[in-house]
Amino acid sequence: MIENDANKNNEEKFTNELIKILIVEDSVDDYELILRVINRSGLNAETKRVESPTELRDALKDNKDWNLIISDYSLPGFNAIEALRITKEINPHIPFILVSGTVGEETAVEAMKMGADDFILKDNIIDNHESRFIPAIKREIVDYRNQLKMLKTKSLLDKSRLYYQLLAQNVQDLVCIHDTTGEFSWVSPSSIKVLGYSQEELLSCSYFSLIHPDDVNRVKDLVFKHIQSGAIVELQRFKYKIKRKDQNYIHLETLAEPIYMHGELHNIVSTSRDITEQIQAYKLLEENQAKYESVLESMTEGVALVDSEEKILNANKSAKHFLKIEELDQITFSKLIFNNFAVFDSENNPLQRSDFFTVKEDINEKTQFNFIYKLKNGSKHKWLIFNSAPYSIHEEKLGAVISFRDVTSSYESEKKLNRLAQELVQLIKTANAPIFGIDKDGKITEWNDFAQNITGYAKKEVLGKNLFEKFVMVNEQEKVRDFISFIIEDGITSNCELSLKTKSGEIVIFLFSGNTRIDFETGDVGIICVGQDITELIEYRNHLEYRVEERTRDLKAALEKEKELVLMQTKFVSMASHEFRTPLSSIKFAADYIKNYYLKIDWEKVNVKLENIIEQADHMTHLLDDILEIGKDKAGKIKVEKSVFNLKEHCEKLIIEVQNQSKNSHVVDFKFSSTKEEVYLDNKLIRNIINNLLNNAIKFSPERDVVKLDVSINNDLIIIIVEDKGIGIPENELGNIYNEFYRSKNATSIQGTGLGLSIIKKAVNLLKGTIELESKIEKGTKFKVTLPLKE
Questions:
Q1: How many C-alpha atoms does 100 have within 13 Å on its Cβ side?
Q2: Calpha distance 268→238 (Å, rounded)
Q3: 3-state SS record for 422-486
């Protein structure tokens, strides 16, 4: 019956109270399903859906009143394990229910180990008699609320316990409750601090047995017997000595207060304070007073105590001797001075008595004041410094303590130092070098005329300003801070090269030498810097470094060119040994044949051999022409020499020449598209371009018998296109074909030097043109050269 009533009460609470549930779910449909089940159960729930780690964190931080977290396991880029970790990080006590339709048993166990409170399959959420969803929600919320109550109760208990412990441990005085006979009934924990006894130990002792024998009867008779007499009395205060556990006596001052109930004495409460130090201090004070009086009398400095009317109340021997008095009388301090001396101020001006300082006026204005006077007695004079400090009791100013001493030698020395200081200030001000001072924070404290002339800033414009903000470039600030720290911390003179920004925006470079500087008034440590303008020196140095770098680059370029020449020579030797050997062998073979058999063979065979000799000689001539052309380019000896010539006729002659060289193995399909045939260009460079393009097209299309040459003139541009259907060039080698001596892998079996395309490229560059290439293996190659007719 009781259990049913409890369940009914819980149901009523869930029906009436608002429950706040945070749902981690990316599916709106699943969220609405959970919401319908919760609402159908009769729970008064306020819910919010989040679907990312950021939204979850924000929701937990913005609202501390969530009662429950319900989380789907799998979300895009997010999962329930991560949601559980975030929840426990922000609120470790809030219940967490994992809901999923796909999670396996191992994952669910892992989540429960990490702190999840329950795991429910999504299929079991639907409200039916077998669903655990709503009962789990209610159970976790009830547990959570009970946990919060327990935590709150525990917190209150902990605070109360802490407050009691702090109170008991920090009471400095000894608090005791005595019975009507005076013995202990209760003592505070401070007994261990005051007397060295624990509470238990002190309660087992007799109070009167601890009191010093000289004081015990007085305490009994004058205090406790008086209280025990039956008369109503107030607080009793008394002092006495009491023995500690270590057998040493200390002095206590005790307040005893009787506690009455129904008019009768019930007990006595005493509060005792250790005044041993006070007693010892008072004794020490008496001893010190005697010492101080002895010291005061032995001082060479005169000291006098005067009242507000300047009447001397007391004076030491030195003061009496100087003031020429033997006994104290009613004469005032200033009257004594002016009766015995002529008085002058620090500027050596004579003073009247009315000009002398007066205690009555000055002690109400200042706590302490100093004056220096020149006192003259006949031909002798002395400089004396007078110091007056208020003499007061309980903040009431009753007079002054006046001390005076002879400072003649130091005063004269000070005057000399002041003159030297003024000379130094003038030297700094007018020095022919920039001088400035800064404190440890970089604020400017000194600025001479030369610094003003260099920077354009007057002294009043920069004093107190920060050196870094005003002058130092951003990229040099760290260096300057290290410079300041090094000098201040190590006290060592140091140098720093610094660029200063002038008022006009000009950058001036200085070499500064810095040293520590101490302000003797404040004791602050700073730096004084003396500079030298090295702008021209830096510019010369930079120019010299530039020249060195420039010369280094030239030497490197020369070295690279030398390396290139060596490489070219190596390639040339390799190529020449191959390319020249073949025609020379052919020439030698033909010549030997004619020499050995010229009487036995007919002239037709001799002509064949001679034609072979001529062909091989022409090949070698072309080879040498190519090599010489490359050599001229390397030496920078090729110059563009323009002239007017007929481009069409020039091309036709080149075609005949190329066909003769190839023994008419190919037909050149030539097209010329332009009404204008004459052009103003270098015909030798044009010859190199077309000749080499046609020779390559014929050479590398041995299986074809036609190559195309198209020449056109459009908008002051000459366009030359040579196309063949030959072996083509591999795509991965297209970037290297203009290099000297380079030959593609599929062309190594065909005779050639690897110089033709390099010569073409250099000629095109000299004419400020462009060359384009299209090529496919076994499909052919197409070159397009574009040359401008105008600069």
A1: 18
A2: 14
A3: HHHHHHHHHCCCCEEEEECCCEEEEECHHHHHHHCCCHHHHCCCEHHHHCECHHHHHHHHHHHHH
669-700 per-position pLDDT tens digit: 999 998 888 999 888 888 888 888 888 888 88
Q: Alpha carbon of 717 to those of 342, 770, 791: distances in Å?
A: 114, 11, 11
Query: Distance between CA atoms of 581 and 753, rounded to whole angstroms?
Result: 13
Q: Which pLDDT tens digit goes with each residue over 45-101?
A: 889 999 999 998 998 888 888 989 998 888 888 888 898 899 888 888 899 988 887
Q: Are 43 and 68 in contact (CB under 8 A)?
A: no
Residues 297 and 316 sit within 8 Å (Cβ to Cβ):
yes
Rounded to a whole number of angstroms, the distance between the first and last alpha carbons of the chain is 112
**Partners of residue 251 on adjacent β-strands:** 241
- CA 349 vs. chain centroid, Å, equals 62
Backbone angles phi and psi of 619, in degrees to 5: -60, -45
- Token pair, residue 101, equals 């339709």
DSSP 608-630: HHHHHHHHHHHHHHHHHHHHHHH
Q: Please determine, looking at this structure, whether the domain spanning 2-153 carries the CATH number 3.40.50.970.
A: no
Q: What is the CA radius of gyration of the chain?
A: 57
CB of 450 within 8 A of CB of 434?
yes
Give the C-alpha separation, 631 to 357, whole Å. 107
Query: For residues 483 and 8, what is the distance between their CA atoms, to the nearest angstrom?
Result: 81
Write down the domain spans for the chain: 2-153, 172-280, 299-413, 431-528, 639-788
281 vs 752, residue with greater confidence: 281
Supply 776's token pair.
């496919």
Reduced 3-state DSSP string for 580-612: CHHHHHHHHHHHHHHHHHCCCCCHHHHHHHHHH
Domain 639-788 matching CATH 3.40.50.880: the answer reads no
Q: Are 47 and 70 in contact (CB under 8 A)?
A: no
Contact by Cβ (8 Å): 640, 681: no
The number of residues in the chain equals 791
CATH of the domain spanning 299-413:
3.30.450.20
| Cβ-contact 720, 711 below 8 angstroms | yes
- Whether 299-413 and 431-528 share one fold: the answer is yes
- Residue 99 in tokens: 């809901």
Type of residue numbered 302: G
CATH 3.40.50.720 is held by the domain 431-528: no
Q: Which CATH class is domain 172-280?
A: alpha beta
Q: Which region holds residue 447: left if phi is over 0, alpha if psi is between -120 and 50, else beta?
A: beta
Helix (H, G, I), strand (E, B) or coil at 20: strand
Which pair of structure tokens corresponds to residue 741? 């001596």
Count of H helices and E strands in the chain?
A: 26, 30
